[in-house]
Amino acid sequence: MKIKLLPKFVISLVTLGVVLTLSISLFSYTSSKKYYENAYAERVLIGSKTIAEMLSEEDIKTIIAADGDQTETYREMYELMNKLKEDNEVTYLSLVVPDEDSVTFYIDTCVESMGDLPENQIPYASDILYTDAANGDDDLQNYHVIWDYYSKNEAPPMPLVTDNSYGYNYTAVCPILDENGKAIAEIQYILDMKQVRQHLNSILYMMFGISFGIIAVGIVFYILFVRKAVTNPLGKLAQFTQDITLSSEFHKKSISINTGDEIEELGNSFNYMLEKLDEYLDNLQKVTAEKERIGAELDVAAKIQADMLPCIFPAFPERKEFDIFASMTPAKEVGGDFYDFFLVDNNHLAIVMADVSGKGVPAALFMMISKTLIKSAAQTGMSPKYILEKVNNQLCENNEAGMFVTVWIGLLEISTGKMICANAGHEYPAIRRKNGQFELLKDRHGFVLAGMEDMKYTEYEITLEPGDMIFVYTDGVAEATNAENELFGTERMLEGLNSATYEDCKDRTPSEILPEVKKDIDAFVGEAPQFDDITMLSLRISDIDCIVEN
């Protein structure tokens, strides 16, 4: 199932937005949770210590002595602890004496205005076993931890956390020491963290709400932008191309695309092509008959196609680092093969060799689209694999004719001789090291362009030294057929390359080698008709030390 560009853009944006929202929200929640937990931990520790320091050793001894609850000291301390509990909003505040297996409560505060129930208050001198008081193994372990620290006359350095049917609580205990530094009782300070948890949850929900709201607004504006800048211009261009292809009417037709990018450049290329075709067609209609007119139209198309390919050599007379030459011989008046080479910048040379499926005018039109898209993508600075991936998806749009194109592309870094290459179902290139022989470089093939959307391609790197040469071609070279239905083949091609490379023990240039290879092909084919386009390109590294600064 094909998915159009706009849904793809929206899906990618939504996915990115959801991931960012979850990440930011979870980070905010985690940070806030850590902050509040640390703050409340410090609060309960300080609170228990402060209350413990407020109580005198003598008062404590009076209270925990026999009938201590009948003393005025007990009543005063009971009132004091109840007030401290209310003022500090403490959930549970008690004066207790723990031992190894149980804890004895001497003061259990009860503030009815805070929701405490008198019937739940623990009576004076109640000895409660840890096993009876604990809610689960973790809670029981906390009681033993408290006793361990108490037996050492110390307070736990961090609050004990419980999360059970009793609630989500922070518990801090602080021993009250006598003049010898021995613990005689301890303050038990418990704070309910339920409201903190609720507050943290509200923060998380708020972050989700705000983030998804921003995403929704962003999606709306993104859709409007993509429609205006990408999908509408491409749809307009695709419809225009289809109308032109189906009607074959070029007269005074043009398309206006104002995007300021490669899409506008593609539209201008179409307008240029139609303008030239229109000029030639007007002239032909005035002076020729139907048969001549058809022949002349094909000549025009062939000329336009030839004009689209680099055909002036030497191509870069000011550059001494390399020498490049190419040729194309179509099987019909117009063909589907094409080559291209251009400087991406002062230090990078792009080389393209491609073969469109089919022959004639449809192949020539598809060739022009492919060439323009590849060059436009390359001039943005993309590496070969990403160029192929982008152009593949562009060519798949509205490709109802089911055409495809094989492509080999290389990007040479002139200053180092390093070339990044990628192959979309094209013929193996041939490489020759200095003073060596041409050999096939059996690189990894990717799928042809326009065959299937969202294909991935791999790239590889080769290094060309001074004197090295690379040769790329279309299948019309190896598949040239003679009258006995024999193929020219890659072995004869390599032999022809190697025999044409040297003359009088001196390397020949690409412009000298390619015509010799073409002669070998013609001699082999003889009088047999040419069924396929024959396209060749060769690059020779001359002197890498002669670098023009970038």
Radius of gyration: 43 Å
Across the major sheet, the strand order is 3-2-1-6-5-4
Q: What amount of the residues lies in strands?
A: 15-25%
Unreliable runs, pLDDT <50, ≥5 residues?
544-550
Count the beta strands: 18
Structural class of the secondary structure composition?
alpha+beta
Mean pLDDT: 84
By CATH, the topology of the domain at 310-541 is Phosphatase 2c, domain 1
Please tell me about this protein's structure.
With 550 residues, the chain is an alpha+beta fold. It contains 13 helices and 18 strands. Helix 7 runs antiparallel to helix 9 (360-378) and helix 12 packs across helix 13 (510-525). 31% of the residues are buried.
Secondary structure blueprint with pairings:
Blueprint lengths: L4 H50 L2 H8 L7 H17 L3 E7 L3 E7 L17 E4 H4 L3 H15 L8 E5 L2 E11 L5 E10 L1 H54 L14 H26 L2 H19 L13 E8 L7 E9 L2 E9 L3 H19 L5 H13 L8 E9 L4 E7 L5 E3 L5 E3 L18 E5 L5 E5 L1 H4 L10 H13 E2 L2 E2 L2 H16 L8 E8 L9
Antiparallel strand pairs: 1-2, 1-6, 2-3, 4-5, 5-6, 7-18, 8-9, 9-10, 10-11, 11-14, 12-13, 12-15, 15-18, 16-17
Helix pairs in contact: 1-6, 7-8, 7-9, 9-10, 12-13
